[in-house]
Amino acid sequence: MFSESAGIRESQEIQTAVLVYEVPVRLWHWMNFFAILALFVTGYLIAIPTPSLGGEASAHFLFGNIRLIHYAAGQVFAWGFLARALFALIGNHTSREIFYVPFWRQEWRKGFFRMLRWYCFMEKRAPRFIGHNPVAQMMMFGAFVLPSLVVISTGVALYVEALGMDHPLRVITDFVFSITGGSLQTHVWHHLAMWMMVVFAILHIYAAIREEIMSRQSMISTMISGWRMFKD
C-alpha cells in the first residue's frame, strides 16, 4: 500500500539533481564538438583530395576553402583546449577529471572494474558517479586529451612549415620534426591521432546514449543544463 512517507521519499529520489558541469565546461564541450566535426571532414578531404573540377582553375578555390576551414577549426580547437586546461585549475572537481587518471586509488580501481562489468552487461544496476565514471575518465584522458596534444602540436608544426623556413615560429616545427622524424612522419602521427579521436567520438556518443537509456541518470541533457538527474 502506498504511504505518504513513501511518496515523499520517492519524490525526493526522483527530483535528486547535482550540478556537475559548469557553464564554461558546457560551452567548451559544444564548441569543441563542432570544431572537431569540421576538422574530421576537412582533414579527411585534405588527406584524400576531391577529384578535379571542370572549367578554368581560376574559377575554383574549393581546396583552398577546405584548408581555410581546417585551419580556422584548428585554431578554435587549440585555443579552446588551452582555455579548458586553464579552467580546470579554478573549476569544480569534475572540470579536472579528464586531465588525469587516479589509478593509484583503490576506490577508483574498484569503480573501474564495476563499470567494465556494467558495460559488458554483467551488472543489473549502473554504479553512480557525480562526474565521469572511471572508465570514461580513462577514455577521456587516453583517447582524447593525449591525442589532442598530438594533433595540436603536429598540426601547428605542419602549418608553420607551410609559412616558410624564415618564419619566427619555425622553431616549433623543428622541435616537433626532431621528435617525429620529419615532415612525412609528422603527417602520419597527425592522421593517426585524428583516427583515434574518431573512434573515441563514436564510443563516446554510444556510451552517452546507452547511459541515458539504461542507467536511469541523465547524460546528454546534463551537458546542456549542467545538472545530473537521478531518475530512481
TrEMBL record:
Keywords: Cell membrane, Electron transport, Heme, Iron, Membrane, Metal-binding, Transmembrane, Transmembrane helix, Transport. One of its GO terms (molecular function) is heme binding. InterPro entries: Cyt_b561_bac/Ni-Hgenase (IPR011577), Di-haem_cyt_TM (IPR016174), Hydrogenase_cytochrome (IPR051542), Ni-dep_Hydgase_cyt-B (IPR000516). SUPFAM superfamilies: Transmembrane di-heme cytochromes. It is a multi-pass membrane protein. It comes from the Bacteria. The keyword Transmembrane applies. This is Ni/Fe-hydrogenase, b-type cytochrome subunit. NCBIfam families: CytB-hydogenase. GO terms for biological process: respiratory electron transport chain. Its main location: membrane. It is found in: Cell membrane. The chain crosses the membrane at residues 27-48, 68-90, 138-160, 188-209. It comes from Rhodoblastus sphagnicola. Belongs to the HupC/HyaC/HydC family. Residues 20-226 form the Cytochrome b561 bacterial/Ni-hydrogenase domain. One of its GO terms (cellular component) is plasma membrane. It holds the Pfam family Ni_hydr_CYTB. The keyword Transmembrane applies. Coiled coil: none annotated.
